[in-house]
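Async update (no meeting this week)

Hi team, since we skipped the sync, here's where things stand on the single-chain job. The sequence we agreed to prioritize is pasted below, unchanged from the tracker. I ran it this morning and attached the output directly underneath so nobody has to dig for it. Comments welcome in thread, and please keep replies under the output.
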Amino acid sequence: MGATESVGNTVQIAVENVGGIDETTVSFSPGVTILTGRNATNRTSLLQGLMAGLGSEDVSIKGDADEAYVELTVGDETYTRTLRRQNGGVYADGDPYLDDPELADLFVFLLESNEARRAVELTTDLQEIIMRPVDTEAIEAEIERLTSERDEVERQLENLSSMRAQLPSLEQRRQELETEIEEKEAELADLKEEIDETDQEVSATRDQKAELEDALEEFRDTRSELEDARYNIETERESITALESEVEELEGELSDLPETPMGEVDEVEAQLDTLRSRREALDATVNDLQKVIQFNEEMLEGTSSDVVSALRDEGNGGVTDQLVEDQVVCWTCGSEVESESIEETLDRLRELRSDKLQERRDLQSEMDDLKTEKATFEEQQRQRGQLEDRLDRARSELTRRRDRLEELTDERSRLETRIEDLEEEVETLQDETQSELLDLHREANQVEFELGQLQTDLEEVTGDIERVEAELDRKDDLEERRDEISDEVADLRTRIDRIEREAVEQFNEHMETVLEILGYENLDRIWIERKQREVSKGRGTAEESVFDLHVVRSTDDGTTYEDSIDHLSESEREVTGLVFALAGYLTHDVYETCPFLLLDSIEAIDSNRIARLVDYVSDYAEYVVVALLPEDAQALDDDYHRVTEI
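Output:
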């Protein structure tokens, strides 16, 4: 079942064994719903339950359970999901709200681990993230199909050019055959007249004459069969010679083609799986480091009010002041330490995080190389398979032709023996005059056979001329189709280019709007630049789009300069990732298919900015569900529905 109209509908979500939730039921109406509470109060778990009901599988089952259950009711419609642990993963079945949750996973479920939010920090391919909802693969497949069709049309046009060159020689051959036929017909007429004259001189009885005529008739027929057999033998030999050349050529092509055992493709795929696992582990490490660094930065700046309050409650009355002096109270053990010492530790953590990010980039580069190598291996296997199929067919045809040649050779021997027997039979039936008549019949038979061969050759040449002329009549249609295909391919390639360009423009517009709403003084602009780069593809190269993210900052004196993502603070990276994800939500009009928007882990933004951001996105999403700390929730409109117990 897909998304249905839900304007004004109340939503109820019942969750069992998701995240840290044993069992709960929560209801909310259209508009903004705030899940407010301290950490570890199951706010994220409830959001995961809502994600499961909508269709996501990026959901965790409670640690002490093997199965979780979610029931989502929107108005009069109810959607259920059951999640189970299996083979080290989580598998879901049931009837979710969305048929395909891919778009929502990217741009609706904006929790801390959201792929679009993390893409900015982890320098993931932004082009792939932005264009994933667009079915460019179908366009590429159509381009490939049209290109193959155009190649076939080009091949046919080349054949037509070759045929046109053969036409003059075919016309000349037809004229020669017509002249030879006229001469043979005149020669045959003379022989028949001479046979009639000689036949009248024969004084044999009527019975003897009839027997002789029967023998002569069989002699002529057998002679004709023999010539047919000889002609067919010559034709088969020519075909065998051509097939032997084709087999030799195909064997040469096969020997020149690099051998790519299936095991190599499997080995490359296994290496890719290993590298993917390493990349996931690195992502987890980078995320953990990010949290540690951000927490310690907030503590040094004295902005983490929860911890500061806890330290004050322990009796450290001057802790708040000490957090910004040379001596600070360690928020882990409670002892006083030098600020410089903590800064040094933070620098080492930042350096470690930078090293891990570089390691991930190197890992991604290695994966890209392996993907190219795999594609090359698969192309070689495809070519080898085609050559082997053609070689098998050629060898089978060669065997059949050789068997046929052997049969024809045996038939020729049989006919030659039969003709010798008929000659002896005829000779016993005639006297000297009849012997002369036999010679005339033999000569006439030979002329008739030669005439038949000439007429057959004339029919074949005439047929070839007619076929060539008919094929040449297709030339204009083929050229027109070739031009049509070229225009279609150009249009499709332009379409992909236009789609990418428009997507980048919309992303940049929405990121500018969201950033303006947030109003950071030294973060002037975040924008994406679309560039082309040359990459290996099969045996050649091709161009592909690359989307580079740029950050423009300003100093206190108003000077603007471009900065890199690596130089942003942890909170600024969080903001940049969230801005990017929200731009995707708006660019792809996700609210038209999924009326929900889930926000979590946005503490890097101060409460007033959170309030402005929530007000803005509530104009698009019918249901905005955001998890906030109590102090951040205070800045939001009092009319917003609040859930404090989960």
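Quick observations from my side:
Residues 1-7, 312-325 have pLDDT under 50 and may be disordered.
The chain has 15 helices and 15 strands.
Reply here if anything looks off.
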